[in-house]
């Protein structure tokens, strides 16, 4: 795992730091501009920065009754009361990420409990979820760091300090700044270790509602093919590897070795994914993808019709949503190609079907008909089908990121600086402002499902072909 830039730690902070004798946790409410400060004595750790939110109510549902609850903590520290990560919460908690540098050696479980005032069973759950990461040396602070933050970083990374740490010997500072997951509650921490703790991991409650046995398409000695449900993650996220397709499919099949991710599809998409049973086959399948011997067909439920044939765009090389695309070649942008094989007119999903699958109504004006497109995906970029069809004025049903932007462009032609009606800009500053305004027209990631299914996957010239079941929009509620 690559090292974490402290830009995410210090960015936007007006100030706040911790001396070596006392800890000051900066709690930044994401919905507001100002910061809140909470001081309490703690000589075990230096807490660099904390992303959090105001106290909110929190409920749990009994999806996993066999897990006993621990005693909740007091809310005197200004945070929520904490119980267990399981059963799954009925609603997501607001973001809270803690970045710490260890000042007193010891086991990771006890250290986090003391430093962040969290109960042991909750911290054990965080470690099980893969929500705790460490690096031997704290990452480099960004230009926005305060003088005190820079001083503390330099103190902990000075050659005179690092040369006395046996774990650093033989490594460059860059190598020592690489982050890894904490896998055991008793993992020993030495002074100077950097920790990143996702106190509120991203949750996937739909995992507990799925009959996973019924989603298994094929089981072989080398791999498993799964019909992935929408609203789930294939192999987990940075802070949650517990609530994933790989984990739940492993348990459903009673396998002793965990299944491994070979490729991804969006959380809000459903359909065929291949999970490897061994590390060797994981490498084999990755090579097949690189050599372009894996063929993927998709069904996309679009709000407008699409022409049959090849669709080409170029995607901006920025690794965050929304993914912006242009029909014109842009230097450094990534080629995106897909082929529309079929496009047929179908009824727009009725309200009861939309509600059952938690598909969002994104404000499209005409809801009489949708258009089911069969797509041969030629290049596999993140959000590629969603971004390309949206750029053609045919966003996917329920796609709460891209459909609002398409609606805005229809209302105000020329709003998209890379679209057919793009304007000419007097200078780069005007263009940058236009791009920022266009990005703002996009909204949040869908909660569960959109009109997108990986309906078929094949490789080795069709020697292996697997198909998913009917997509959600074909299951109309009686």
UniProtKB/TrEMBL annotation:
Residue limits of the Pseudouridine synthase RsuA/RluA-like domain?
Answer: 223-391
What highest taxon heads this organism's lineage? Eukaryota
- Show the InterPro entries listed in the entry: PsdUridine_synth_cat_dom_sf, PsdUridine_synth_RsuA/RluA, RluA_PseudoU_synthase
Q: Which GO terms describe its molecular function?
A: pseudouridine synthase activity; RNA binding
Please give one Pfam family short name: PseudoU_synth_2
- Which SUPFAM superfamilies does the record match to this protein? Pseudouridine synthase (SSF55120)
Name a biological process GO annotation.
Answer: enzyme-directed rRNA pseudouridine synthesis
User: How is this protein named in the record?
Assistant: Pseudouridine synthase RsuA/RluA-like domain-containing protein
